[in-house]
Amino acid sequence: MNPIIQYLQKFHPISEESHLEILSISKLRRIRAGECYVKAGEIPVHMFTLISGIVRAYVRNDKGKEFNRKIFTGPAVAGSLTALIKQEPSVYALEALTDCDIYCTDYQKFIELSNKNLEVKELYIKMLETFFMEYSQRQIELLTLTATERYLKLKAEISHIEDLIPQYQIAACLGITPVQLSRIRKKIRTLNIL
Hints:
It comes from Neotamlana sargassicola. This is Crp/Fnr family transcriptional regulator. Residues 10-131 form the Cyclic nucleotide-binding domain. By secondary structure, this protein is α+β, with helices and mostly antiparallel strands. The chain has helices at 3-8, 16-24, 81-86, 107-116, 118-144, 147-157, 161-164, 167-174, 178-191, and strands at 26-31, 36-38, 46-52, 54-60, 66-73, 76-77, 93-96, 100-106. The strands form two sheets. Strands 1-8-3-6 form a four-stranded antiparallel beta sheet. Helix 4 crosses helix 5.
């Protein structure tokens, strides 16, 4: 089964005919590490399904400091959903941290397809519900978990993250400085938690 379809089936089952319709408006791209496939200020036209690799969504303030909103690992929909839905400039940039395989789906054609295909519409609704619940959970974690707990959770999700991306990227994702991350890692080693 095609990887994009296999991923989408997790949200809602769809027929082979619907699979083919989605594939007809999607294109597989290989994104190299360091490449930004959505730049802040651009209006996105594609929905991106990350099949493999790691991507970060980040914002840069007026002083040039970057803040990671999220790190995506494949498979996942990795993009600025608000900008896509509202057709407005993206606040976030999306950068491949490792080489990635990404399906680019024409968003307008996907919406048109969902308007005439009930299966695709149900799939889209289930996707939006899932994204909303994930976003809500992340907000709760940022409010209730300590930096150490957030780091341990990230390590549980991506056990080899230190081998994939620089420490400053990990720290930015956790909302802490690299120095704080270094202290957390030292404390964890001392306590033999990992």
